[in-house]
Write a structure and sequence with these properties.
single chain; 6-stranded mixed sheet; 20 helices; elongated
Length: 560
């Protein structure tokens, strides 16, 4: 439920705060006092655009804050709420501001959010029903959604969705095969050439690296031979070679050892150096013996390396990408070569799945049709009680192509007057009828509709008297397990309020502002009397107002 709404610098509101209650909240007041502007402020808080002309002082921020109390049931239905609710917290505070520079700022429990997030959240918190909010009545998708909520077909739809997902995957594969078949022969030749080209060399990074090293050795063998020989000469030189130097050093270390045994480590280290020197010389001699240059081998290796470079240019740039291209080409080639086998197998699978899918869809259709019959009876009963006496309603289920929701197209048809044919809602529903039809639908969906707050504006258009009383009773019933906020001009409806707010204009310092007052038992009687008799309540009107409030408190109304 929405527990509090604060609006600053919007319309005729300087700064107002209204504390809503559970149940039925009624807003009344003279025309132009600002009742609908208050609803506009709430719409803005939940993501709708703001008309800058509604800002009272353009030099100051326009701000709206809405506080919602969130139930466990709503969190279970819409888990995204957990992103904004700390552990054990149940209050959700939405702040939105329009700044003088034209920027908008939106936060939920202190966290900045996008407009899309705000709208998505609003769709789960609040359901608006004003003069321009009846588009869902005209939408076939909305009709299907409403029917399914009543039908209790989640398990059937989950089963269908899984089959449909597999069916789509195979259908996409089939489309790919059809695309391939149009140029099959040409593609086979191209792929055959590419595969042959790619199989000239091993497509492994390690092999390529080894080949590059071998190429470098062969192409630089003369330099390598020369440098290795120079290194051997340097190490073995009789005058300055390391071997000769170590040999000359040994007698001196022995003399040191004889005098100071602690220097024996020098002899050991010299021995290690001599061993390493011998190992280096041995390696270099072996290296020189094995170093050779074969022109034919060099040419072959250079060709291999050139092939790698060309393949990377055409299918790379990296060898890993070349390898992936090769694997893809082989798979595509195999598919094309085995086209008829693959196509036949795929068609068999698709036909089998389609049969299974239609059987699953038929179960859903059967369940929907059974629910549609019950919905027809419920809606016609509700509409008659709401004053559309000769109304006929029908939920038509037409055959459609297989789609994510089954094989049905659901359209609500109505005939509000005797002797008229049933027609789609979009063609015939007036604003007053639309509001009452929406109320009837909400009553029918009351047990399965997850949205906790309903807001009605102008539901009393074109009704009055006893019909107003019946409408008030329906709204009261609707508010039993959800919060209803309602703007009305009818005292019959206002008498059912759990909480009644009066919205009025006042002038202070030659400036008109709008104020809100929560009425107590006494002021409620006066307000309803004024709504009945005009600007000044009469004694008769006060008596009638008391009687009306007494009647509204009774659990049931007599039906005539």
């Amino acid at each position: 439920m929405i527990s509090q709404l604060s609006i600053k610098n919007f319309g005729l509101f300087d700064h107002i705060t209204i504390d809503f209650s559970r149940g039925l909240n009624i807003l009344t007041g003279e025309t132009g006092a600002g009742k609908s502007i208050l609803i506009d402020g709430l719409r803005y808080a939940l993501g709708e655009r703001l008309d800058p002309s509604q800002i009272r002082d353009p030099q100051q921020p326009c701000a709206v804050e809405a506080v919602f109390e969130i139930s466990k049931k709503l969190v279970n239905d819409y888990e995204a709420l957990l992103e904004f609710l700390p552990e054990k917290e149940t209050s959700l505070i939405i702040n939105r501001a329009y700044l003088p520079d034209g920027r908008n700022r939106a936060k939920i429990n202190g966290l900045s959010v996008t407009l899309a997030q705000l709208k998505e959240l609003g769709n789960h918190l609040l359901d608006f029903h004003g003069p321009h909010d009846h588009q869902m009545l005209l939408s076939s998708d909305a009709h299907l959604s409403m029917l399914d909520r009543l039908s209790d077909i989640d398990a059937l739809k989950n089963e269908y969705s899984e089959i449909y997902r597999k069916y789509l995957e195979l259908s996409r594969e089939q489309e790919k095969l059809k695309e391939l078949s149009s140029s099959r022969e040409r593609d086979i030749e191209i792929l055959k050439h590419q595969i042959r080209e790619l199989e000239q060399v091993p497509l492994e990074e390690e092999k390529y690296t080894e080949l590059l090293e071998k190429q470098s050795r062969l192409n630089n063998s003369e330099k390598l031979y020369e440098r290795a020989g120079q290194l051997i000469n340097t190490l073995e030189n009789d005058e300055s070679g390391i071997s000769q130097a170590i040999t000359k050093a040994f007698p001196y270390t022995r003399l040191l050892n004889n005098i100071d045994p602690a220097t024996s480590v020098l002899t050991e280290n010299l021995s290690h150096i001599q061993e390493k020197s011998d190992e280096i010389l041995s390696y270099l001699r072996s290296y020189l013996e094995n170093l050779s240059f074969e022109p034919q081998e060099a040419n072959e290796i250079n060709k291999f390396c050139d092939t790698y470079i060309e393949l990377k240019r055409k299918y790379g740039p990296s060898l890993d990408e070349v390898r992936k291209f090769y694997q893809s080409a082989k798979e595509k080639y195999d598919t094309l070569v085995n086209f008829e086998i693959n196509s036949n197998e795929l068609n068999e699978k698709i036909n089998s799945l389609e049969k299974e899918l239609r059987q699953s869809a038929q179960k859903i259709t059967k369940k929907r049709k059974a629910t549609a019959d019950g919905l027809k009876e419920t809606i016609e009963k509700e509409l008659k009680e709401l004053g559309i006496m000769h109304a006929r309603f029908e939920c038509k289920i037409e055959k459609a192509e297989l789609n994510p929701d089954g094989q049905d197209r659901v359209i609500f048809y109505i005939s509000p007057n005797a002797g008229e044919d049933l027609k789609p809602l979009a063609e015939i529903v007036s604003s007053g009828e639309a509001a009452r039809l929406m109320l009837a639908l909400k009553k029918a969906l009351i047990k399965v509709d997850p949205i906790p707050v309903l807001i009605f504006d102008e539901i009393d258009a074109q009704i009055g008297g006893r019909l107003g009383t019946i409408t008030g009773k329906k709204l009261k019933e609707l508010s039993t397990d959800r919060q209803v906020i309602l703007i009305t001009h009818l005292p019959q409806i206002a008498s059912f309020a759990d909480t009644h707010f009066k919205i009025y204009k006042k002038v202070e310092n030659n400036r008109t502002t709008t104020a809100i007052e929560e009425l107590d038992a006494g002021t409620k009687i006066k307000e309803i009397a004024k709504m009945m008799s005009g600007e000044k309540e009469s004694a008769i009107a006060l008596t009638h107002a008391r009687e009306m409030l007494t009647q509204a408190k009774k659990p049931a109304l007599a039906k005539g």
